[in-house]
Design brief:
Structural class: mainly beta
Shape: globular
CATH class of one domain: Mainly Beta
Radius of gyration: 27 Å
CATH superfamily of one domain: TonB-dependent receptor, plug domain
Strand content: over 45%
CATH topology of one domain: Ferric Hydroxamate Uptake Protein, Chain A, domain 1
Number of helices: 4
Helix content: under 10%
């Protein structure tokens, strides 16, 4: 089951650990420098014999905070951040390579970390301050990976792995990368194919409103996914003041899957059991090309221009069959195609003045196009059977093209007030035109002003205060404009679109306090946040005279607030510097008025928070390291309110255990066990008939759980 006393014991342990970390801070000696940048030279990691940059980062206390993985108000409702954002913006992942942002969306800096061998790194910086020289803005911290400089060098890194799944499947995978430099040219080529096979087993118990058993469903869903990814990153220095990069990536992510359901019906005499089989053919292809050119003038001013072009196509065909003793009858045909294209160009100019101030201004234009089509045929349809709908009567035949032209003008002022304080202010003017054609023809214009201020104060060289205030505007999902598929509900094959949808907006307030122990012995961090939300996007009523249905729409104002605590402690105090213990606790709450019930409730799918625990023990003398990570959510918080159903979601903890051995001419052998306790994902769904959840009557209660089982993996890695 999802709930257990073990979760409470783990939470108590995290709280005790956090208290111990905070109480130990008084024993730590303050550094002798007040520099906001923490530098880790390659020699620091040599004793661990790391394979990649990711392995190096894993040894740094507090790295989850620096990488933005610690939660606490990052993203969430109203946020325009994330890899799915349209355009590039000032943010992106907080990873720089040689002080520069990788020009890409899918092929960002964070994706490079597992591909760059550790032997190519000169040092790693954790930049805690703000600077006009940074290529990304808005992150609490920035990680800068500085590579070795050489007239000619190269390194090949490889990984061969195999996953053993709970259903007995053995899936191989691997990756290889070539990194190097030849004169003014640096390069990184990589190819990888990682298994993502999944066989999810589950059940569903259904009861009528009076508690009478309705039916039981046993299901097995199998997804055969093994993405194939090729990437290339090239950089060339034309001189001391001119540098250019070209980045490219290609992905083949075909994911065919099947769903086998056995339905045991308890209503009706005689009892009738049903076997259903879903066969879905899914193909997916993505490519992206990006590049930039940067020139530094004699006065150290910088001009930079970049571009990104990408395209993704997803084509899915689902057919459902009722299986009898000697029959196989198709009762559903659902075809869905999406083509997503994006073209971005961005140019900026930055200049330093008055000794400690920097001004950057520029403009970005992004063109985004979505072409989609959906065809639904049902055996129960009243029309004429057609081969275009799998030999079934047509029920829905929708198509649409959505295009957005988006311009973003920005100006950023950075002021290093003194060696302990910095202040950065940003002003963004965003304008966009969204047009839709197909089943609906519509054109709308939007404009927003988005200010932001970021203040940082090094109270001591170890203790830093950060405060930010930001006006943020979310980006609309084009798929919400048109009819789309719903894979989460067997009784609802498609969902409606809403061409009237508006962007969700928010004022965001964050206050962060971070303390770094002396001699790299740990980091503790706290963040308090409050988000004032406008035009919250949630489910709204778009029913017709004959059909009760909902779509994503704007339901009014809301709020989200919380507290995030994170600690990372190296146990040098007990003469065990090779042991690194991490803990995190996120507490959050939210409020919005439900459009159907008129009650105050949490935002859809926004829970009460989560907690985590990690342990790592490096034993360089024995060439061994081992550890685990444990993540869990605080239960009974994630609910979804829709027009005719209310759903509650809970999940067991997610855990990974690992053991590594370094040896054999620099080769590394790694063993991983993922979810050895077979964690479950559960949902309780209340269905209402003859109206909405406000006007209808409760008709059915569905209690379902599923799990993907445990996974064991062996990885052999090395460089030469």
């Amino acid at each position: 089951m999802c709930c257990s006393s073990a979760s409470n014991r783990v939470l108590s342990l995290i709280l005790l650990l956090s208290g111990a970390i905070f109480s130990t801070s008084a024993l730590a000696q303050e550094p002798t420098t007040n520099d906001s940048t923490v530098t880790y030279p390659a020699e620091f990691f040599a004793q661990y014999e790391p394979f990649s940059v990711n392995d190096m980062l894993d040894r740094i206390p507090g790295i989850s905070v620096a990488r933005g993985d610690a939660g606490g108000g990052n993203g969430g409702p109203g946020s325009s951040s994330g890899s799915s954002r349209r355009g590039l913006g000032l943010g992106g992942d907080q990873i720089l390579i040689n002080g520069r942002r990788t020009t890409g969306k899918e092929n960002e800096g964070n994706s490079q970390l597992s591909r760059i061998p550790a032997n190519q790194v000169q040092y790693i910086e954790i930049i805690r301050g703000t600077s006009g020289e940074l290529d990304v803005r808005g992150g609490s911290q920035v990680i800068n990976i500085v590579l070795l400089e050489a007239e000619s060098s190269s390194s090949i890194a490889y990984e061969i792995n195999a996953d053993y799944l709970h259903d007995g499947e053995l899936k191989p995978g691997g990756k290889v990368s070539l990194t190097g430099q030849r004169g003014a040219l640096d390069y990184l080529f990589s190819a990888e194919s990682e298994p993502r096979w999944e066989r999810r087993k589950g059940f569903e118990n259904s009861f009528l409103a009076d508690g009478t058993p309705n039916d039981n469903i046993s299901r097995v869903t199998t997804t055969d996914l093994q993405p194939l990814v090729f990437s290339a990153n090239l950089g060339y220095e034309f001189g001391e003041n001119d540098i250019s990069h070209i980045n490219a990536q290609y992905e083949d992510r075909d994911a065919p899957f099947t769903d086998e359901r056995t339905i045991f019906n308890f209503v009706g005499v005689p009892r009738k059991d049903t076997v259903q089989f879903d066969d879905t053919n899914n193909t997916s292809e993505f490519w992206e090309i990006g590049g930039d050119y940067e020139h530094t003038f004699a006065n150290n001013a910088r001009w930079k221009t970049l571009f990104i072009v990408n395209k993704k196509e997803d084509d899915s065909l689902r057919e459902r069959f009722d299986i009898g003793a000697t029959t196989r009858e198709k009762d559903l045909f659902l075809s869905n195609f999406n083509r997503y294209q994006e073209r971005i160009i961005r140019s900026s100019y930055s200049i330093a003045f008055a000794g400690s101030q920097n001004l950057e201004f520029g403009i970005e234009r992004a063109e985004t196009i979505l072409d989609s089509s959906l065809q639904l045929g049902l055996l129960s349809g009243s029309g004429i059977a057609s081969q275009l709908f799998g030999g079934l009567p047509e029920v829905n035949n929708a198509s649409a093209t959505v295009e957005e032209l988006r311009d973003e003008s920005f100006i950023i002022h950075n002021w290093q007030i003194n060696n302990r304080m910095s202040f950065e202010s940003t002003l963004i003017l965003e304008t966009s035109e969204i047009s839709q054609s197909g089943d609906v023809s519509k054109k709308r214009d939007f404009d927003f002003i988005r200010p932001k201020v970021d203040y940082r104060f090094d109270i001591t060289p170890s203790l830093q205060l950060r405060a930010t205030v930001e006006r943020d505007v979310s980006q609309l999902s084009f798929n919400d404009f048109t009819a789309n598929t719903n894979s989460g509900d067997d009784d609802q094959n498609t969902i409606a679109g809403n061409p009237e949808l508006r962007q969700e907006q928010s004022w965001r307030y964050d206050l962060n306090l971070e303390y770094r122990f002396n001699d790299d012995n740990g980091v503790v961090s706290s963040n308090i946040y409050y988000h004032d939300l406008e035009d919250v996007i949630d489910r709204v009523d778009v029913s017709t005279l004959t059909t009760i249905q909902s779509a994503n729409g704007n339901i009014g104002d809301g709020e989200r607030y919380g507290l995030s605590l994170n600690g990372s402690l190296r146990l040098s105090v007990i003469d065990q510097p090779g042991i690194l213990v991490t803990a995190g606790l996120d507490l959050e709450s939210s409020s919005v008025t439900d459009p159907f019930l008129g009650i105050d409730r949490r935002l859809n799918r926004q829970g009460r928070g989560s907690y985590s625990l990690g342990f790592r023990h490096d034993m360089p003398a024995r060439d061994i390291n081992y550890g685990f990570t444990y993540n869990n959510s605080i239960l009974d918080g994630r609910k979804v309110f829709d027009i005719d159903r209310i759903e509650s979601y809970n999940s067991d903890a997610f855990s990974i255990l690992f053991l590594e051995y370094q040896g054999w001419e620099g080769m590394t052998l790694r063993f991983e066990a993922t979810n050895p306790h077979e964690s479950e994902r559960c949902r309780v769904r209340l269905r209402y008939n003859d109206g909405t959840i406000a006007s209808g009557v409760l008709s059915e209660i569905e209690d379902s759980c599923s799990h993907t089982g445990e996974k064991y993996a062996i990885k052999i890695r090395g460089t030469f």
